[in-house]
Write a structure and sequence with these properties.
This protein is mainly alpha-helical. The protein is built from nine helices and no strands. It is elongated and about 90 Å long. The relative contact order is 0.15.
Length: 248
């Protein structure tokens, strides 16, 4: 459970609702189905036009990482495991690590050490994994861009909703009973557009980017660690090298 995300959303929504109530407003005033349809439907349509359906679905799937993935990779536990494997490799050779592969929880670490055991050269190992990391980064950045793009469209769609509402008002100047509804749709659409962009879509995009940067840094450490094991570097020096990746 990612507590900061849940607290952030709860705090943002509470601030809006609380501010509305303190101003003497009624919360039901901002519940306008027509405005919601224009803003959310329009934003989704524009986003689907910008990306493939596969990109949008993967982006929606990444929401579990925003709300349920727990913080940073476990650097300390991973480094301890790497050093343990480095000791084993220096004493008995790289192949001696093979029975311990299933003890490695991180799939990227397990794959990397497996490639090293199979005898791939350090240079080719680095090139292969760097290319894989670039592909991984591009894929994950596209998930972030889906939310960033939706966050860019939403306020504009909100303005379109406001204009539609005002047009409706102008068409019903002779019917005062309909004026209030039209004006409400106009302003609420703007609130929906700006609100959903700045309270939800853009922060989610930023969170995904930050998570990606942490993941790439962790993967880079894994590559350096496995190449270090493969090269037979002293485990003490290897630990010091890996600790440089850890934030103090």
């Amino acid at each position: 459970m990612e507590k900061a995300s849940l607290i952030g959303i709860a705090l943002g929504v509470s601030a809006l609702v609380g501010g509305t109530l303190l101003e003497g407003g009624n919360i039901t005033f901002i519940l306008q189905p027509a405005a919601a349809l224009i803003v959310f439907g329009g934003t989704l349509g524009a986003t689907l036009l910008s990306f493939t359906l596969r990109d949008v679905l993967f982006a929606l799937g990444s929401l579990k990482e925003v709300f349920f993935k727990n913080e940073d990779p476990a650097y300390d536990a991973c480094i301890n495991q790497i050093i343990s494997l480095a000791h084993l490799s220096r004493k008995k050779g790289l192949v001696a690590i093979e029975p311990h592969l299933m003890d490695i929880n991180d799939p990227f670490f397990r794959k990397t050490i497996s490639l090293a055991i199979d005898g791939i050269s350090p240079r080719l190992l680095r090139e292969t994994l760097e290319e894989e990391n670039l592909t991984f980064e591009d894929f994950r950045l596209r998930q972030s861009r889906v939310f960033e793009t939706a966050g860019g469209f939403a306020p504009t769609i909100g303005i379109i909703g406001a204009v539609i509402g005002l047009i409706h008002v102008m068409q019903n100047l002779a019917e005062p009973a309909k004026l209030g509804q039209g004006i409400a749709v106009a302003f609420v659409a703007t609130v929906y557009g700006v609100g959903v962009a700045n309270l939800l879509l853009l922060p989610i995009s930023k969170k995904l980017k930050n998570s990606l940067m942490r993941e790439i840094k962790f993967r880079t450490m894994i590559v350096e660690a496995v190449i270090g094991i493969q090269s037979g570097i002293n485990p003490h020096y290897l630990r010091e090298k890996l600790l440089a990746f850890v934030e103090k």
